[in-house]
Specification:
Shape: globular
Number of strands: 17
Strand content: 35-45%
Largest sheet: 17 strands, mixed
CATH class of the largest domain: Alpha Beta
CATH architecture of the largest domain: Roll
Helix content: 10-25%
Radius of gyration: 18 Å
């Protein structure tokens, strides 16, 4: 057995186990069963995912992300903000960062608007699929977006699971976002997350997809610097982006990230 030091972080209620591997390797990512157990809310620490902070040549750090099911995941926007906050707590105090995530390089910076907020530049979105009653796109992770007249009576886990496992997405799965159809801002977004296989309080790549779908549904004109506030069950986030038809660039996911607690356990 060996002693594992861990840290628990959350970004609008999306919570993560953070492990510092900047100087030595604790986990190599092959420990699927262990990672799943660590994320279990009854038999482990409890989290929506686990993140390894580790060095990578040419970058300030690498964010190696694992879903609660123990498998490596795709990009996690809330997790990225938590990773930047974690790196800062370990002494990597900079005004901006260049790091590597599951979907490639990203920039990050401290927010000039709100204390305790971090801003992550997301990957460009160059294609949006429009169905009869949905939008589908990849914002670093695949996301299905559907607008609803009301959200609070919706069974997010039942409806989300049905879409996530239907024939269209069965091969690789998708995250599912239900968005308030009201034109007023902030948007309200409820998300079912692939890999967690449950509703989470917030999803960074999900609110990014919801904001993009909103601009298309309401036919916002092409312009730089569109700002869309988004309300999740775990708190408020903000998306800023440049829009040109169905192409989106300079997408920044902005929101809080903070340490919840830290501890040790034997593995």
């Amino acid at each position: 057995m060996k002693l594992l030091q861990f840290y628990k972080y959350q970004g609008t209620g999306n919570d993560f186990i953070m492990i510092n591997q900047m100087k030595s390797t604790v986990l190599d990512g092959s420990e699927t069963a262990l990672i799943k157990r660590l994320c279990d809310r009854r038999f482990g620490i409890g989290a929506d995912g686990l993140i390894l902070l580790q060095p990578k040549q040419g970058y300030d750090f690498e964010m190696d992300y694992f879903n609660a099911d123990g498998h490596r995941g795709s990009m996690c926007g809330n997790g990225a903000r938590c990773t930047v906050a974690f790196a800062r707590s370990l002494g990597l105090e900079q005004s901006s960062y260049y790091f590597f995530a599951p979907d490639g390089p990203h920039r990050a910076r401290l927010s000039l608007k709100k204390e305790g907020w971090f801003e992550i530049e997301m990957s460009d979105v160059l294609k949006v699929e429009r169905g009869q009653d949905y939008f589908f796109m990849d914002t670093g992770s695949p996301h299905y977006v559907r607008f609803e007249e009301t959200l609070h009576a919706l069974n997010v886990e039942k409806e989300g699971r049905h879409i996530r496992y239907n024939e269209q997405f069965a091969a690789t799965g998708t995250n599912v976002n239900f968005v308030s159809a009201a034109p007023s801002l902030p948007l309200q977004v409820f998300t079912y997350e692939r890999g967690v296989e449950a509703e989470t309080l917030s999803c960074g790549t999900g609110v990014t997809a919801a904001a993009i779908a909103y601009t298309l549904r309401h036919k916002l004109l092409d312009e730089p610097g569109i700002t869309i506030p988004v309300q999740t069950k775990g708190g408020i986030l903000e998306i800023r982006m440049d829009k040109k038809e169905d192409r989106y660039s300079k997408i920044w996911l902005c929101g809080p990230a903070e340490e919840v607690f830290q501890g040790h356990l034997y593995i």
